[in-house]
Amino acid sequence: MRTTWRVIVGLAAGLVAACAANAEQQDDDAGPALDASGNADSTQPKKDAQAANDGSSGNTTDAASDVQTVDVFDAGPPLAPIVYGHSPDTLYTFDTSTQAITQVAAFSGCTQSTLTQVIDLAIDSQMNAFVTTFDGFYSLDLMTAECSLIQTGSYPNSLSFVPAGTLDPLVDALVGYFGGTYSRIDTTSGAITSVGTLSGGYASSGDIVSVKGGGSFLTVTGNGCGDCLLQVDPSTGDLIQDYGSLPHGAVYGLAYWAGALYGFDQGGDVFSITGGGDAGLVTSDIVSDGGVMWWGAGSTTLAPAAAPDGGEIATQ
Questions:
Q1: Number of Cβ atoms within 10 Å of the Cβ of 79
Q2: Are the C-beta atoms of residues 216 and 160 closer than 8 Å to each other?
Q3: Are the C-beta atoms of residues 301 and 281 closer than 8 Å to each other?
Q4: Where are the domains of the chain?
């Protein structure tokens, strides 16, 4: 909110200056971080998005205490190494350099009932954000966590933008998985179009993330996975390679920054996934049982694809 007020004051000052200059011209012519903590009161799991059609839901609440107050960067290309995570009812930022988790705000207007259950988040290259719930599709203000309804209905619980030039030649395209079905979502109308199918007997378990020049990644179940990490083709949604099992289950949030993936699981853990090691990946715990029941995460498609030293997750 402090950032917002600075912008407003700046604009006001600019308008005053412009008016003064105009008046002079008229005269001449006549003669403007702490680690997250909190409680998740419900054990309700993040359901398959298709379950929304059954009207089934569970009460879930969580809160964070002693959270630092910071300015979240304004909309536009990111100036700080910030990704976003969320519980069913609250939005947070995660600073990948300091590993600080900061509560932004409780979601507002993100439901057509009395229960807020945001099931995933996606952010494009211009920091425009959108979320899905069990009852609809919404745009999201990352500064305030306020939602605006675009369309009611059943939507994917794994969501990401893919870079321009992938499914659309000019703009980022919003995509998601219904189980193994890869779909595109129109951000203006909320219309869903099927794009392709994930092969190999896998199904999305919680999230997809894509970054320009850095690949597209999906957490999945199936074939004995719970969860596995895949690289997928953002043009078709199909499997490119299986990196194997993750040492975490219910990884419902996935974000990317500077050559590393960041996983957020329902048990409250936050962890990083980087390239290297005998298995090709190194997983490092950052927060263990932090008290937030993570149901999703997101990062911009313009996140740096590689670390400053050039390190990144190997892709095909």
A1: 8
A2: yes
A3: no
A4: 74-298
Distances (CA, A) of 38 to 134, 143, 242, 261, 293: 24, 21, 34, 24, 9
Q: Is the dihedral of CA 288, 293, 295, 301 positive or negative?
A: negative
Cα–Cα distance, 148 to 98 (Å, whole number) = 31
Length of the chain: 316
Locate 227 and state its tokens: 């969860």
Task: Quick: pLDDT tens for 131-166.
Answer: 999 999 999 999 999 999 999 999 999 999 999 999
With contact defined as beta carbons under 8 Å apart, do 267 and 250 qualify?
yes
The answer to whether residues 16 and 37 touch, using CB atoms and an 8 Å cutoff, is: no
Provide the β-strand partners of residue 62.
40
Q: How far apart are CA 48 and CA 177, in angstroms?
A: 10
pTM for the whole thing? 0.78
Of the candidates 212, 218, 209, 123, the residue with the CA atom closest to the CA atom of residue 164: 212
Amino acid sitting at position 79: L
What local confidence, expressed as pLDDT, does residue 103 receive? Answer: 97
- Inter-CA distances, 283 with 171, 243, 245, 246, Å: 32, 12, 11, 8
Q: What topology is assigned to 74-298 in CATH?
A: Neuraminidase (2.120.10)
Is 60:114 a contact under the CB 8 Å cutoff? no
DSSP state of 279: T
For 173-207, give the secondary structure using H, E and C.
EEEEEECCEEEEECCCCCCEEEEEECCCCCEEEEE
